[in-house]
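Replying to the earlier thread about multi-chain prediction with a worked example.

Input:
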Amino acid sequence: MIKAPRRTGLVFFPAFDWAISPTHPEREERLLYTQDQIMEEGILDIDGIEEYRVRPATFEDIRRVHFCIPNEEAVTTKSHLISAGGCMVAADAVLTGEVESAFALVRPPGHHARTVVLGNRGFCNINIEAVMIEYIREKYGINRIAIVDTDCHHGDGTQDIYWHDPDTLFISIHQDGSTLYPGSGFPDEDGGPNARGSTVNIPLPPRTGEKGFLFVLDELVMPILDKFKPELIINSAGQDNHFNDPITNMNFSARGYAALTSRLRPDLAVLEGGYAVENALPYVNLGIILAMAGLDTSFVKEPNYDRDYQEQPETITRYIEDLVRDLKDRFLKDHKMPYLKSGQIISRTKEIYYDTDGIQESQNERIRSCHDCAGLLSIESRSSLGLHTMAIRIPIRACDACQKMGSLWYSKALKNSFDYVYLQNRVQNTYEVF
Amino acid sequence: MILGLDVGGTHTDTVLIDNNEILAVNKIPTESNLVQTLKTAINQAISDVDPFQIERLVFSTTMATNAIIQNQLVETGMIISAGPGIDPHLFAVGPAYSLVEGSLDHQGIETWPLNKKDILFAAGQIKNKGIKTIGIVSKFSVHNPIHEIQIKKWVTKEFQHIFLGHSVSGSLNFPRRITTTYLNAALSKMHNEFTAALTKILDEKGCHAPKFILKPDGGTVELSKSNLFPARTAQSGPAASVMGALALDKCKGTTLALDIGGTTTDMAVIVDGVPLRTPFGIRLGNFHTLIRSLMTHSIGLGGDSEIKVNKNGIFKIGPLRKGRPVALGGKVPTPTDAMITLDLLNIGSKTAAIKAMSILGASIDLDAKSTAEHVMLEMGNAIAQSVKSFVNYINSRPVYTIKEVFYEQKIEPERLVIIGGPASQLAKYIGESLNLPYEVPAHAEMANAIGAALARVTTEITLQADTRRGTVIIPEACFSKAIDPAFDMDDAVRLASSTIREQALKFGADPEEIEFSVVEKQNFNMIRNYSRVGQNIRLKLCINPGLLPEWKRNF
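Result:
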């Protein structure tokens, strides 16, 4: 019997009875062949690999992260709750010490879901990593967490949720936003005023191959992680950088993903996108599981690898070298930040389009500049659904000043004519809707 | 009249059943020579019976289990084609394990063709070692058996016995398919000799009735057909007990069956008369197999387990057994001694039992009776605790659909059925500890032989249809054919139903007793570029373990 050098948990939830719509890529069949490959390999018989049963997340779990408008019932399905809950099960397995790392191979995905949720964007309603992370913070008191998002699409939802949080490092490696949905994720997007440098975007050109991804990982991602010193590393393991993926233009492979996983050594990995259901997912997922467990991955290879995989062109290698040089300068050297007085209110506006549901939203966000905590946040939202709402977040470990100011903002908002006013108070662990 | 026979580690039990009555029971010690044990047991069981009156004989034996544990397997070669994934060298088994070119992907589509020269070379090397039996297994052969069939065609003249991987089970699991195919092949010679010897004993007695062997899934197979899958006859003991519990009690609702023996206690869950089965297969020695079994759990806790007590007055019973109870001449105190002390059991020397209990209790200032009472309570609690974790284990099995997560009923036993030697003495303690009603049916101590006698034929089949590729396959029946794009779930159910019927008849089922259920039924739209290009249909039917229809009518 094979023994895994590293005890690894697996939470598998293929949601065989759920699809966004009958012919949507996010469909029942998506993980069918992955399941077949995992079962045929006998992965679950390996000594040291444990499979866990999913449990649904509760609305309370979601309210630590999101403001669902008008409410959670309206924007989630049972499948979203199970997908997020599956990540929480994986987290429990790792943090109770039953396993050293765990992979939540669940669907639907979540990394395009932002703080405010009006519907489905980029196949996502609920940010499953964020729900997991805030559950970990609440239950296990772990503070410093790094997310490395290796999905081909920029993890704009996760970026939005952690934009102001200096304790969460969010690194996204993705196909350049000027060539792919959602069109964001450029290097100058590097975090809010209280958390500058804790968001890292690495946009890679189309046709980036194994060499480019692993170069970026070794030269940039690992040093940034070393500098941040997270207590936990989470990999948003999207699989659409694959050379067989039908909706992207990258040139990554199963062995590349396996090598990336071996080097990154995430404590938790969560499946995100990836729609080459027959000729990428079964091999990539297998590679990730074996790599997490510390097992040999040299026999994991797509049947068409030798025929169809192409080394990245030299021009791309040079482009990536230049990019990494710039980003090293930006994130690994200490720069003098512009001084902001505590208590200053900084605002920005955002236009958000929910592609799946066809909703247009305008947000006005205010953050209280703060030297003592992540800062009080409010998001005013108007959408094509006709709803006008105000959401206020008192962050976890908020300072007294931010807490007091939060109550003030809330009572002020109640006097205005919003359709709904929400108060997420992470200090008292309460969520109020009016 | 039916003869049931169960070979256990210490005893071999026989039972004669006629017209829903248990006519006679007999128990003899199990000897090291299995055929001799069977001969003695059969002789004693039918000494007063006209052999022509026997209509059916069922055996639950330890032949395959012993052969595997004692490593009496015949030298067997393996020809394996793998493809991408885990290094297939890690699954090597037997003296001649040969990897050949060729592979299929997860849908059974060929991604690397076989190479005849390469295969003949591998076969030649195996043959040169003097090996006459081989197994042929390819990865994903249950989604397309073409490579296994082709390899067999090329090497068929070189070997006496050839076993193919796809026929052992419809389930996906390449390493288990390899070991299961290997075991079937490696056991075949011994199994053939064993069935021949058994048939000879019965022929000499003038018994020509249909003969069956019990399997670990609680079903039977006709003796002559068991040669196709000899490993399927291993480890049938726990299943015999569960089927016995089912035969002696209605097992309505959710019942937890406990079989308490001298060394171990086995448990299983029966839901509305159907015992739960494991999703994969049994473990035989170091081999993980695809051989279906009932979901049973065994703990090292029985009537003859060793009892220790520490300074804090905590009793520890089992998991070891160190010989006989003190009352029967042993050296170590056991729960049996406690039962004798409390007058729950009248065997051996009561004086010795009482003495053992008072020595055990001396260090914590308890007299013999209180010590014995403590032992019984502790045993009841320990078994209850194991029952709880077993049920918890069953309820934490992974599920893959929203329906199962939100709507599937959890297993919660409503009652206990307790069988085995010390069943009646311990039932009260276990029942009270679990706060559940309990039943100790009559003949509880012979339940295993009764279970074997009354078990019906079981089988299962797995159908996979892919309308894009235009194929339907039922690996267990070695069936595949082309289908048109309109093939749907109704067609699949029709085809699977008739196939499972044929399969059951082949294994010796009575046409009247064939009742099957759908274990798995899934239909996936295959979507490519936002449009439907086909259907992937998956269907698993099985004949659940159950009792002969005439016995059921008794309730």
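Chain B has a mean pLDDT of 94.

Feel free to reuse this layout for your own posts.
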